[in-house]
Design goal:
This protein has 3 domains: 248 residues, Aminopeptidase (3-Layer(aba) Sandwich); 95 residues, Domain of unknown function DUF2172 (Glucose Oxidase, domain 1, 3-Layer(bba) Sandwich), CATH 3.50.30.90; 100 residues, Orthogonal Bundle (Arc Repressor Mutant, subunit A). An 8-stranded mixed beta sheet has the order 1-10-12-11-13-16-14-15, with helices on both faces. A 4-stranded antiparallel beta sheet has the order 5-4-9-6. Strands 20-17-21 form a 3-stranded antiparallel beta sheet. A hairpin with a 2-residue loop joins β18 and β19. 31% of the residues lie in helices and 24% in strands. It is elongated. The protein is an alpha/beta fold.
Length: 452
């Protein structure tokens, strides 16, 4: 898939999915997953209401068709059709005529952000409510009466989630999770849903060394439902990333795993370093997304998050201003590239053993050393000090560069059967892709052997 087509698909999915009213259960989730399945292959599963998930229980299913607050003349002052965030998610049905005093306790606003509608939920408390801007609230007639209607139902049904498994050859498996339970909130987390789909689509077209498990779930209860059904599988996961808030206008960020220096933490840091990108590193915190479920004591799966305008950190978080004007498909695709580059490094991270461990092997007879010696790193021959950029002819049809020769030597020196390619990259500052390419040449030339 070209960058142009990826960018176009990202924009199309954001536009198509943004209006759908999603929650932790219901038809909005199913509709969203069906749209995504036209782009990437995954299975959909249902977990019935009442199913025990450790200390939790899958709640009744919630669906909504209409909701409004109207004045005495029938004018709709707050309307679900204008924004699905206007209704507190999981509100029970109501159809009543109320005074302002009776209505006010059910209204939610943000006085410090008067043009924004807050996002509020009542998943496990049978209640109802409306969310509106502070300006709308201030305009309500304190002496008026209001027709309040929420046409919803809350009854036994099921929780819906999606899963795909891409099998590799290494015996190691990594997790990519995202959550699909938020209504019209673009960065949190429609952006994550779209990136998850694009990542699955692209990885599905590759042969991978490691196995990758993709799950798309309602936040918290979905993770608990998945883990409770797949306990042994989950405990074998080597690590993972929760994909969320990936398309905002601000800086890139990375929330570390609970270990802080796990393989994935180091790979992500190396990705940012090689790209020369400034980013914010957030230490692990139990306040967050489903990493706290995956990393809980019973599982201890190290899970991090690469993001762009991380949840909690931007002003529009959980408001109607987290809309399609706040995010950009270009930002989403940039973050997708960070995920793909990190996966590339994960795939390349092998451990090698030198087949000539007693001293330095003779590179010249293998066409890996300049035909004329003496000028390597010679200051007089290279007064600019740019020896890494200098080329050396090593055979009639083969030229190597100074930094490639350095990479060869460092790899041979560090390939003791215990030092991974990631460690070599960290110690030498060579790009991991270059080290991988050089390692492949050395394996082909009989100088290195793959340990893992």
């Amino acid at each position: 898939m070209t960058d142009i087509s990826t960018l176009q698909l990202a924009g199309d999915l954001l536009q198509r999915l943004f209006p759908i009213c999603r929650s932790i259960t219901g038809d909005g989730v199913r509709e969203t997953l069906e749209v995504l399945r036209r782009q990437a292959v995954f299975e959909v599963y249902e977990v019935p209401s009442g199913t025990a998930c450790f200390d939790w229980t899958v709640p009744d299913e919630w669906n909504i068709r209409e909701a409004f607050i109207a004045d005495a003349n029938g004018n709709r002052l707050v309307d679900f059709r204008a924004s699905n965030i206007h209704v507190m998610n999981y509100s029970i049905p109501v159809d009543a005529e109320l005074s302002f005093e009776e209505l006010a306790p059910h209204l939610h606003t943000l006085p410090d952000l008067p043009d924004a509608i807050p996002y509020r939920t009542t998943y496990y408390n049978r209640n109802w409510g409306f969310c509106l801007t502070q300006n709308q609230f201030d305009a309500l007639d304190r002496c008026g009466r209001y027709h309040v209607r929420i046409d919803s139902d809350l009854k036994p049904g099921s929780l819906t989630f999606g899963e795909a498994f891409l099998e590799g050859t290494s015996g190691q498996e990594f997790l990519f999770s995202t959550y699909c339970c938020h209504p019209s909130l673009a960065n949190d987390n429609l952006s994550g849903v779209v990136l998850w789909t694009l990542l699955l689509k692209q990885l599905s077209q590759r042969k991978t060394r490691h196995s990758y498990r993709f799950i798309i779930i309602p936040e918290t209860i979905g993770a608990l439902a998945y883990l409770s059904r797949n306990q042994e599988l989950a405990r074998k996961l080597a690590g993972g990333l929760v994909i969320t808030t990936v398309a905002g206008p601000g800086r890139f960020g990375y929330k570390t795993t609970f270990q802080g220096n796990h393989l994935l933490d180091r790979l992500v840091r190396l990705t940012f370093k090689e790209l020369g990108l400034e980013y914010i590193e957030y230490p692990f915190d139990v306040n967050g997304s489903d990493e706290r479920q995956f990393s809980s004591p019973g599982f201890r799966i190290p899970v991090g998050t690469i993001c762009k305008d991380k949840y909690y950190e931007y002003l529009y978080y959980h408001t109607s201003l987290d809309n399609l004007d706040f995010v950009r498909p270009e930002n989403l695709v940039q973050t997708l590239q960070l995920y793909l580059l990190t996966i590339d490094k994960l795939e390349q991270n092998r451990t090698y053993r030198s087949l000539n461990p007693h001293g330095e092997p003779m590179l010249g007879k293998r066409g890996l050393y300049p035909k004329t010696g003496g000028s390597i790193k010679q200051r007089a021959a290279d007064p600019t000090g740019q020896h890494d950029a200098r080329s050396y002819q090593v055979s009639a049809d083969h030229i190597i560069y100074g930094n490639e020769l350095d990479a060869i030597r460092w790899l041979l020196f560090l390939s003791d059967g215990n030092t991974s390619l990631l460690e070599v990259a960290e110690k030498t500052s060579f790009p991991m892709q270059q080290l991988h390419d050089v390692a492949c040449k050395l394996v082909e030339g009989g100088l290195l052997d793959v340990v893992f």
